[in-house]
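Working notes for the structural subgroup meeting. M.R. asked for a predicted model of this chain before we commit to crystallization trials. I am recording the input and output together here so anyone reviewing the notebook later can reproduce the run.

Input as submitted:
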Amino acid sequence: MNLKKKFVSATALGLAGAFALAACGGDSTDDKGGDKGASNAPADLSGTLNGAGASSMEDAQGAFIGGFMAQNSGATVTYDGVGSGKGREQFLAAATNFAGSDAYLKDEEVEASKDRCFGGQAFDIPVYISPIAVVYNLEGVDDLQLSPDTLAKIFAGDIKKWNDEAIKADNPDVELPDTDIVPVHRSDKSGTTENFTEYLAAAAPESWKHGAIETWFDNGGQSGEKTSGLVNTVQGGNGTIGYADASKAGNLGTAKIKVGEEYVAYSADAAAKAVEVSPKAEGRGENDIALDLARDTTESGSYPIVLVSYMVMCDTYEKKEDADLVKAYASYVISEQGQNDAAKAAGSAPLSEKLREDAQKSVDAIKAK
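Returned structure, recorded in token form:
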């Protein structure tokens, strides 16, 4: 199957409420007829659960919510794809029950969560693994390869023409036009931006001096709000290049990225391989599962421009009903069924069995005060 088409199976959703999301879900049984979803939800589970966060995982959240609500008719779950930064802010302000974030909580956010979490604290678990595609729109060029240094210089504004010698060196068999490069970045506070720039800082430290940032600095180019806005901006011009969750790449060109001595196209498997060689972040709480992604890996067949989206929750909620509902929904999200739902809807890479087991232990620790 064409890799791009694999990720185009789901279109961006307007996630205003639970019913729009629920329409995207699959049924609750696996291909063999067995229930692979969460099995520890109370029989009388009911109530409303509100989440907000990363726009990159809207399609996956649609699948999670559809499957969960099919199993729990008394429960309502909503998710608003406002972006990772706003999602964490809303969660910490107690405006939502959980957040979706393409970056794990910062230490100061964990500290700030203690009042919101009724004497406990917030924690992260990985729920969604996806490559970040380097998307471009350049007339006459259907195949593009970029090394980390070249990519970093493009987004730093140091390479300005598509027929620059550095891009020619990466693409010796491609006729490149004398066209201005128009870098496109996110205009909002974005976990996708943080993951992308974290990769640039690790893989091309001599060419990218800005570190890992959630909010883009002012260096010209163009911008778009949320994933859909960035993709629309890239689609609307010639010579444009940006970065987006691969599930939203659509019909845009996508660049192969140099890893070691080979140029690797994005895929769910290649993203999963990069996560497999990534250690857990040090100094985190007992239930927190944050990963320090191996951005500079040279592992053959891996694609290190990858995002891991986290579900951010409290370990302590005010009411037992809230704790039960969060626990049940999170359990479904990380279950085999939930992960397969997301893979079908968004082309993501399912969590490994070890990550699912570790995440379930963290979810099981959620309680009421």
